[in-house]
């Protein structure tokens, strides 16, 4: 398994990983519409201060992660996901671990942050197992269709 830069050819595969609006919201919040359009992913990949990486093995795309350059010393992990074909096999942990290693190589970042919905227990436990800690920062929830979804803000020092 290795990390590589996102290619526009990855977008159709990634957009196919979400079978419901709830899955889409858990992953992308309001950043993408439902159903997720390939063109939306490609358009976002061109935004300044955002970097898309994929976890790959041979020709398979196993996972996807968005890195947001928040400041000179903070990087934020967003939109972390694993292909449904590879879930439950440690791929998410490998994706985040390799992403942290890539961020460390850049030597300027001292902190990596992320937010995870409280109901996404699998992701929360993955981040916690890698050393991320919950911190008391806003936002603490997002509203979707009249429902309030609690968010956990997390960070790790490099």
From TrEMBL:
Residues 1-158 form the N-acetyltransferase domain. PROSITE patterns: GNAT (PS51186). InterPro entries: Acyl_CoA_acyltransferase, GNAT_dom. It comes from the Bacteria. Signal peptide: none annotated. CDD domains: NAT_SF. One of its GO terms (molecular function) is acyltransferase activity, transferring groups other than amino-acyl groups. PANTHER family: GNAT-FAMILY ACETYLTRANSFERASE, SPERMIDINE N(1)-ACETYLTRANSFERASE. This is GNAT family N-acetyltransferase.
